[in-house]
Amino acid sequence: MSLKQKIVASALALAFSSAAFAQDHSTMDHGSMGHGAMEDMATPKGDSGPSSTAFAKANARMHEGMDIAYSGNADADFVRGMIAHHQGAIDMAKIELQYGKDETLRKLAQEIIAAQEGEIKMMKEWLAKNGG
Questions:
Q1: Distance CA 127, CA 132 (A)
Q2: How would you classify residue 12: left for phi > 0, otherwise alpha for psi between -120 and 50, otherwise beta?
Q3: Phi-psi map region of 72: left, alpha, beta (phi>0 left; psi -120 to 50 alpha)
Q4: Cα–Cα distance between 61 and 38 in angstroms, integer?
Q5: Average pLDDT rounded to a whole number, residues 81-89
Q6: Distance from first CA to last CA of the chain, Å, rounded?
Q7: Is 93 exposed, middle or buried (0-12, 13-18, 19+ CB in 10 A)?
Q8: How do the residues of the chain divide into helix, strand and coil, expressed in percent and rounded to 5?
Q9: How far apart, in whole angstroms, are the C-alpha atoms of residue 93 and residue 87?
Q10: 55/27 Cα distance (integer angstroms)
Q11: What is the pLDDT of residues 96-131, one digit of tens each?
Q12: Which residues of 10-33 are buried (b: 16+ CB within 10 A; e: fewer)?
């Protein structure tokens, strides 16, 4: 298995584990968490270097953006949640470009930015056409 295939496999595993995380928290009322809860999410666990702080803040923004009011329209709800999720991926990829040194991962980060920006554009257009 090539390094790129290993990275893609790892990214898919992470995506599936992230979906499980999101599902476990789907019944959580984030609105009742109070302002401090989002601040806690924006505080890195472990190393508190600049990249850790940036990743923690990006993660908190993504989760806040994914906390949508569900409409009962699965298509629209999917798109609304995924826009924030994709923006989170872009934000994390930009942090990799700012702080990361591994050229393979930096290239992957650039590819993620390009792909996710295109998908966000498509989803926003879909929402505009479909009353979102």
A1: 4
A2: alpha
A3: left
A4: 8
A5: 96
A6: 42
A7: buried
A8: 80, 0, 20
A9: 10
A10: 25
A11: 999 999 999 999 999 999 999 999 999 999 999 997
A12: eeeeeeeeeeeeeeeeeeeeeeee
